[in-house]
Design brief:
The chain is of the alpha/beta class. It is built from 5 helices and 6 strands, in the order E-H-E-E-H-E-H-E-E-H-H.
Length: 153
């Protein structure tokens, strides 16, 4: 199993949690972003910079994804495609996308985009909080306990 991170919008606390988990469990972790990223030196962690442009990181992740891999993303269309291809998707707030809930999340996303576009609704998600950080860490730990490698240390 490999962990892929849609890293352009991934909060720093989530990346730190992922770095520790990848090291502890010996799982490959790849940050994919349009900008240069500097992960900690590690044989299991790497960063890939893709060219600038709409969804370039998403395209890279989907091309490299193997069934069973985990993708960390807040991008619901990317999560839907990951799930459709047999991968797993977890958002930075700890919500796991599944075949059962991802279609609903896409519908809600599309509705919210329509409302924002018409001026009825403005704003976006709440700021990333300590509770979000804990929810992500707990969800990642549950996922890796079931699907991940055994700890190497």
């Amino acid at each position: 199993m490999q962990i892929w991170v849609d890293a352009d919008a991934c909060p720093s606390p989530v990346r730190e949690i992922l770095f520790r988990a990848a090291e502890r469990r010996g799982i490959g972790l790849t940050l994919v972003a349009n900008q240069a990223m500097r992960p900690p030196p590690s044989p299991t962690i790497r960063a890939v910079q893709v060219r600038g442009g709409f969804d370039e990181a998403d395209k890279y992740i989907l091309q490299a994804l193997d069934p069973g891999d985990l993708v960390i993303t807040a991008d619901i269309p990317l999560a839907a495609e990951v799930v459709a291809r047999g991968g797993h998707a977890l958002n930075p707030r700890g919500e796991r996308y599944t075949p059962d809930n991802v279609r609903e999340r896409l519908a809600v996303r599309d509705l919210m985009d329509t409302l924002r576009g018409s001026g009825i609704l403005t704003g976006g998600p709440a700021a990333f909080s300590q509770a979000d950080r804990k929810a992500f860490a707990d969800a990642l730990d549950r996922f890796l306990t079931v699907h991940g490698s055994n700890p190497t240390a």
